[in-house]
From TrEMBL, chain B:
Organism the protein comes from: Antarcticimicrobium sediminis
Protein name listed in UniProt: ABC transporter ATP-binding protein
Domain ABC transporter: 4-234
Domain of life: Bacteria
The entry's keywords: ATP-binding, Nucleotide-binding, Transport
């Protein structure tokens, strides 16, 4: 009991470790990106350090307003579909037996193990003219000729939802399974019909989780880079694809950096808005 | 005029019989406790009355109308759930008047009704609070107020006080009973706590394995249990194996003559003798059954003497200030107060 070193209090300097990591791997690259975004583009080569708003000014063009709108609406649509499908799915899932729940969750988790590349190529094959479901529909007599369903907006959103759905369910599952079933019974006894209890009691009490799932899928698909190129047409390219295009193929790093900053600001703004909406009235 | 009548109710969960041919009638305005150990079917019975479970057989009549197949939300019942099930997304007043909002009652009327009910449960002025800002006892009261807000025909409560600490629970038992009496609403409470049942109920229904063991007024059940299970479940008792022969009770090798007031439900053969600890008398070893004192617990208000006679444990509750001094290891003579002996199957 005499010379025991204090085991409870960690030395202060240990706190510097995460701070150093954060600076090295997040703040510093972000600073460079910010600096590049206001640098001057050197058409023949790279860029020159400087300060100008030229790259940001390019957003004001109709073309990039459109790109931004497509990128956002594709992600919003994917997030909305994932939540709309995932929420009832999770409610039914949590009402199932324990073993069934575990099995379904394991299957869902295994989807997460598939890379975007595999999902993208699988879907593009599945939706193709030569080997896709068009042949099945043709064989069933639903359509006169086999046809391709990719590249298209439908194929792109299907792919994004395939990736986003397990995330939506994983975010929704804990709060949904923890929801007191007596809340619904109470509403029923007090005179609420099934739908009324669902919209008046279940949804408001799970609003935080629903908003959380929506944000997660939205942010996740906003950064989607591969699927828009595999499954979508060029007009469906998301901002991430355009950033890569500008940085690598057009050699316009300042503009790519400016777009990245913009993407981040938009994502932050939406996350902030959504979490505000979730926190209002104390829903959790 | 809300009599509640249950006829031949059974409920199966797979092969498990939660309720087995239960029939009973609850007169208008009575306070009824469904009492029994966990798994006895009391909660299932309550849920069938509420319409949350569909019975496998039998009927439920409320005020003479067959409600067996009426969906829950059209029954117009008030209910307090074990978890209370208050809505976290609504404030106290909106919780209380949720059933009225469902029925399209306007906001001003709802506010007035909420105030009225909050006064009834002694929480005046707390209507704007959030549920999570309330203490356990306050939530309890809000749940009761919510259950009463539509002036229900029948008021159902599922283990409503089980989450409260002991002293608050006793207080709420009295309060709940007073509220029920002032409104005269037919009330059914599920509980596993026999003291709670004795405190509140006009009518106690003791259940075990989905079957009603006994239904009656609290003191009738206490003094005249129908069987060994009821005797053991209500209050504390000494249950001793005995033999009935020609009106005499033979217990632990002793023969006792039946006295006036003894309730002997068995005419001959093996049975159980139930004697409440307050009716166990101690005297000199030669004055009765010989027993050895194993423990003495002095609680001030009474003295509990634990004894062993043969292979049976016997407990006596002696009034305070008695002359008899006993200590563990002493041998005493045990007798049972004549007229207070109950023999059941």
């Amino acid at each position: 009991m005499t010379d025991m070193p204090s085991q409870t209090a960690a030395p202060r300097w240990l706190g510097l470790w995460p701070a150093a990591m954060l600076t090295l791997f997040f703040l510093a690259p972000f600073g460079i990106m910010l600096a590049v975004s206001v640098a001057h583009r050197d058409v023949s080569g790279f860029y020159e350090w400087g300060f100008e708003w030229d790259s940001y000014a390019r957003f004001l063009s109709v073309f990039f307003a459109k790109v931004m709108a497509v990128s956002l609406s594709v992600s919003l649509a994917a997030a909305a579909i994932c939540v709309l499908l995932g929420f009832p799915f999770t409610v039914f899932l949590s009402a199932m037996g324990h073993t069934a729940q575990t099995r379904i969750l394991v299957v869902l988790l295994s989807v997460l193990a598939l890379s975007e590349v595999i999902i993208g190529f699988s879907l593009s094959t599945l939706l193709s003219q030569t080997a896709g479901i068009g042949n099945l529909f043709h064989w069933l007599g639903l359509i006169p000729e086999p046809r391709a369903y990719t590249p298209s907006l439908f194929a792109l959103i299907a792919g994004l939802c395939y990736i986003g759905f397990p995330f939506a369910v994983l975010v929704l599952y804990p709060p949904v399974s923890r929801l007191d079933p007596e809340l619904i019974e109470a509403a029923r006894v007090m005179g609420a019909s099934g739908p009324r209890a669902f919209f008046g009691v279940i949804i408001p009490n799970l609003r935080g989780a629903i908003v959380g799932a929506f944000i997660l899928v939205f942010v996740f698909t906003l950064g989607s880079y591969l699927l828009p190129q595999l499954l979508g047409r060029s007009e469906h390219w998301t901002l991430s694809v355009h950033i890569t295009d500008q940085a690598i193929y057009q050699s316009n790093l300042p503009f790519a950096a400016a777009m990245s900053v913009f993407l981040m600001l938009v994502a932050l703004a939406l996350v902030g808005l959504a979490s505000l909406a979730g926190r209002e009235r104390g829903a959790a | 005029m809300t009599t509640l009548r249950i006829e031949g109710l059974s409920k199966l969960f797979g092969t498990f019989k939660a309720l087995d041919d239960v029939s009973l009638e609850i007169p208008d305005g009575k306070f009824v406790c469904l009492l029994g150990p966990s798994g006895c079917g009391k909660t299932t019975l309550l849920r069938v009355i509420a319409g949350l479970e569909t019975p496998s057989a039998g009927r439920v009549f409320v005020g003479g109308a067959d409600q067996t197949l009426v969906p829950t939300h059209k029954r117009g019942m008030g209910m307090v759930f074990q978890s209370l099930a208050l809505f976290p997304h609504l404030d106290v007043a909106d919780n209380i008047t949720y059933p009225l909002a469902i029925r399209g009652v306007d906001k001003a009327t709802r506010r007035a009704r909420a105030e009225e009910l909050l006064d009834l449960v002694r929480l005046p002025g707390l209507g704007a609070r959030r549920v999570h800002q309330l203490s356990g006892g306050q939530r309890q009261r809000v749940a009761i107020a919510r259950g009463l807000s539509i002036n229900p025909q029948v008021f159902l409560l599922d283990e409503p006080l089980s989450a409260l600490d002991a002293s608050l629970r006793e207080h709420m038992q009295i309060e709940l009973r007073q509220i029920q009496q002032s409104l005269g609403v037919t009330t059914v409470v599920v509980t596993h706590d026999q003291k709670e049942a004795l405190t509140m109920a006009d009518l106690v229904i003791v259940m075990k394995d989905g079957v009603i063991q006994q239904a009656g007024a609290p003191m009738e059940i206490y003094h005249n249990p129908a069987n060994a299970f009821v005797a053991g479940f209500i209050g504390t008792t000494n249950l001793l194996p005995c033999e009935i022969n020609a009106g005499a009770i033979s217990v632990l090798g002793h023969s006792l003559a039946a006295a006036d007031g003894d309730r002997i439900a068995v005419s001959r053969g093996p049975a159980s003798l139930s004697v409440r600890p307050e009716h166990v008398l101690l005297g000199a070893p030669e004055e009765g059954l010989r027993a050895e004192v194993t423990f003495v617990r002095d609680l001030g208000e009474s003295r509990h003497v634990l004894m062993r006679a043969g292979d049976q444990d016997i407990t006596a509750h002696l009034p305070p200030g008695g002359a008899l001094r006993v200590a563990p290891g002493d041998t005493v003579g045990v007798s049972f107060r004549p007229g207070e002996r109950v023999v059941v199957q």
